[in-house]
């Protein structure tokens, strides 16, 4: 990550639910800038891994160690859920809220809200109720609300699921700008094209295990395992 202090190590992390191992054991060191794309078939454990990294999934074994104390790590992270969660209030209130929680002065909040409303193309909808926005607009608002806090690490779970091409392109360009500005992005996707467009490195999960990982160019050009090859070809992999 751009801030060299923000990296994370997972040692023998296991998540069990109802007696079944849904993730792990995972051993992983994650650092460096850019996009880490978490890919794999349905049920492979992608969302569970994201939540483990963010510290909101109960682990049954192993350790998750950020290179800064846990409270600092959490403070420096944001998480965007697959179905955007927002306040039943205006776009402006949705963007202001995270900054109010940080206790920023009103003038600074107004400045950043105006700037981010422009970044996400909602400057003319600032006083509209957020629940009335389209799916693409809601997702852009969720992203704006996460990025307005300038997190060091941003987690996203399928941020473009069910969005049209135009909204997907707009979200990818917002994410690319954030990555260039120094936010480490860790996201899941079902869209291999999106993974190819964005990824710096890949985590390929299969059956709860980290089946293959490494730089994106290596993964896409010369996957090591037959399962990764099959997955990239579009075959059904279990
Ligand atoms: N609370 C839970 N109780 C029981 N099983 C769970 C629970 N949460 C997740 N699972 C199971 O854990 C496995 C991994 O789920 P997860 O949502 O992490 O996969 P995923 O790769 O994100 O899937 P998808 O691509 O479908 O979103 C699945 O088999 C799921 O059914």
UniProtKB/TrEMBL annotation:
It comes from the Bacteria. SUPFAM superfamilies: P-loop containing nucleoside triphosphate hydrolases. GO terms for molecular function: ATP binding. Residues 8-232 form the ABC transporter domain. Keywords: ATP-binding, Nucleotide-binding, Transport. InterPro entries: AAA+_ATPase (IPR003593), ABC_SmlMolc_Importer (IPR050093), ABC_transporter-like_ATP-bd (IPR003439), ABC_transporter-like_CS (IPR017871), P-loop_NTPase (IPR027417). Gene3D superfamilies: P-loop containing nucleotide triphosphate hydrolases. This is ABC transporter ATP-binding protein.
């Amino acid at each position: 990550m751009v801030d060299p202090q923000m990296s994370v190590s997972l040692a023998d992390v296991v998540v069990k639910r109802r007696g079944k191992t849904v993730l792990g054991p995972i051993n992983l060191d994650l650092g460096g800038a850019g996009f880490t794309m978490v890919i794999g078939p349905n049920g492979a454990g992608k969302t569970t891994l994201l939540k483990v990294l963010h510290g909101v999934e109960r682990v049954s074994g192993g350790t998750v160690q950020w290179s800064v104390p846990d409270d600092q790590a959490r403070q420096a992270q944001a998480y965007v859920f697959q179905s955007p969660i927002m306040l039943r209030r205006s776009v402006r209130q949705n963007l202001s809220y995270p900054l109010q929680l940080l206790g920023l002065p009103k003038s600074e909040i107004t400045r950043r809200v105006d700037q981010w409303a422009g970044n996400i193309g909602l400057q003319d909808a600032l006083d509209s109720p957020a629940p009335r926005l389209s799916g693409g607009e809601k997702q852009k608002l969720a992203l704006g609300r996460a990025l307005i806090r300038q997190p060091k690490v941003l987690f996203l779970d399928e941020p473009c699921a069910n969005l049209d091409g135009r909204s997907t392109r707009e979200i990818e360009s917002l994410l690319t700008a954030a990555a260039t500005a120094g936010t480490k992005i860790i996201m899941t996707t079902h869209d291999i094209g999106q993974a190819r467009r964005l990824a710096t490195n890949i985590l390929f999960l299969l059956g709860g295990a980290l089946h293959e990982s490494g730089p994106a160019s290596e993964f896409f050009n010369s996957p090591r395992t037959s399962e990764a090859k099959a997955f990239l070809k579009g075959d059904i992999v279990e």
